[in-house]
Amino acid sequence: MVGPRGIVAAGIASLFGLELMKQGVKSAELITPLVFMIVLGTVLLNATTARPFAKLVGVFQQDLKGVLIIGSSSFSRIVAKYLKENQREVVIVDNNPSNVKLAKQMGIQAINANIYSDDLSENLELSDMGYLMALTGNASVNQKAIENFSGQFGEKGTYRIIFLKR
């Protein structure tokens, strides 16, 4: 994980600025605000140019076609097989080992994991996944999947089954 390195520079600059002010150096009080402005400027520069630069050098994935499917029921496996046959990368996540095994036997990448696990999103490689389909038979599990991955897929990239009571 990459942390905010600028805060270290700002902290050290503050200490130097205080020491220089004690020694009576002219304009020493300007060091800390100057360093904070430089840190802010580099953060803003990085934030505004990273995407265009990635596109320029060809490392930006524009069309994410992969599909993450939550649940490995027979319906989910049929959907996954169809998507895979139509050149989509598919990953199924389910906490039922036998359903995961059936998906793997069909040639579908499947992971045995619990959607309620806090480290699930950290353990999944989602860099080329553009869509989420929550297809379990449990509405609360589907909702939890949407909540967990909404930051990754956004509102338009997430789909779930909604069960209507009769």
Q: How would you explain this protein's 3D organization?
A:
- This protein is an alpha/beta fold and 166 residues long.
- The chain has 2 domains: 6-57; 66-160, NAD(P)-binding Rossmann-like Domain (Rossmann fold), CATH 3.40.50.720.
- It is built from 6 helices and 5 strands.
- It has helices at residues 6-22, 31-57, 74-85, 97-105, 120-123, 139-153; strands spanning 66-70, 90-94, 109-112, 129-134, 158-160.
- Strands 3-2-1-4-5 form a 5-stranded parallel β-sheet, with helices on both faces.
- The protein is elongated, with a radius of gyration of 24 Å.
- The mean pLDDT is 82.
Compile the SSE list and pairings:
Layout: H1 6-22, H2 31-57, E1 66-70, H3 74-85, E2 90-94, H4 97-105, E3 109-112, H5 120-123, E4 129-134, H6 139-153, E5 158-160
Parallel strand pairs: 1-2, 1-4, 2-3, 4-5
Helix pairs in contact: 1-2
| CATH homologous superfamily descriptor of the largest domain | NAD(P)-binding Rossmann-like Domain
Model regions low in confidence, pLDDT < 50 over at least 5 residues: none
- Strand tally is 5
Number of domains: 2
Q: CATH fold name of the largest domain, please?
A: Rossmann fold
